[in-house]
Amino acid sequence: MSKRRQFLQQLGLLSAGLALSPSLLACESSSSSQSAASAGAAVAGGAAASGRGVLKEIGLQLYTLRDYLPKDPKGVIAKVAQAGYQDVETYGYSPTGGYWGLSPKEFKELLKANKLVSTSGHYEFGQYMKDGNLDIVKRYIEAGTTVGHQYITVPYLDGAVRRSADDYKRIAEKTNKAAELCKTANLKLAYHNHAFEFEAYGNTTGYDILLQETDPALVSFEADLYWVVRAGRKPADLFRQHQGRFVMWHVKDMDKTSPDLNTEIGTGSINYQEIFGQAKLAGVHRIFVEQENFAASKDPFQSIRQSRDYVKNTLL
């Protein structure tokens, strides 16, 4: 996690410089509640049946392969396709470096050659959340439109911008504004969580504020299920409270002996069969496998295939 935070912070510094460039101007339900019980029964009629009714394609968050992708993007993307994935979620784009040295058009062509799509991308919003300058968001929209995204996704918030409930209200306001801009390009904005959003501010949390103060017609959420569980929350509770807003999921498992580590889907401590039984309630239609670390003895490409096979054969 610390590596990811450092990476995003470094990218944020890059984005800050670009934002000043003229080129950017171009553009628990109660057991006594019969209704809640009925709702639960309706979606829990079998995880497999629910998953198959909602989810078809399995994606991979490419951050999983961050140690390999910058060195050989073409080879890595080919291996992702060979592992059985149909969709990829990007990370690390910059207007100068593109996607690991590939322009948006070149990356789109690479995806097409491997029969892949990219419906979502993680883009650094750190500087925008500080200064509100939408120029960098315009560049993300340009790139995402070329690649074929449906979602421009906020991946992480720096600690400096999220110290209070009022900070989260300001974040929600800026998120709405960026989402309005995305809408003009037929895109949607999504927000990806970690665990820090669940920290309490009085009788609320940062995540509660974001869910309540962003416009459901404009802003969607990508539920990182590992981080929801790590924060001590139950995904099903969120899905019931905010039905239909969690259009994307990050699916990564928690190591049984070291909860701060990830492991292959189906081998950890998260009950994914139960969670996938709530797919319709959540509103999910895109899932991305992600794994931020691997056992020393595990080949990462074997790992992503193992996780994909478990999702395909057991959860969908």
Automatic annotation (TrEMBL):
Domain Xylose isomerase-like TIM barrel: 77-312
Domain of life of the native organism: Bacteria
InterPro entries linked to this entry: IolE/XylAMocC-like, TAT_signal, Xyl_isomerase-like_sf, Xyl_isomerase-like_TIM-brl
Keyword Protein biosynthesis: no
Coiled coil ranges: none
Gene3D superfamilies listed in its UniProt record: Divalent-metal-dependent TIM barrel enzymes (3.20.20.150)
Annotated keywords: Isomerase, Signal
One of the record's GO molecular function terms: isomerase activity
Signal peptide (residue range): 1-26
PROSITE patterns linked to this entry: PROKAR_LIPOPROTEIN (PS51257), TAT (PS51318)
Protein name: Sugar phosphate isomerase/epimerase
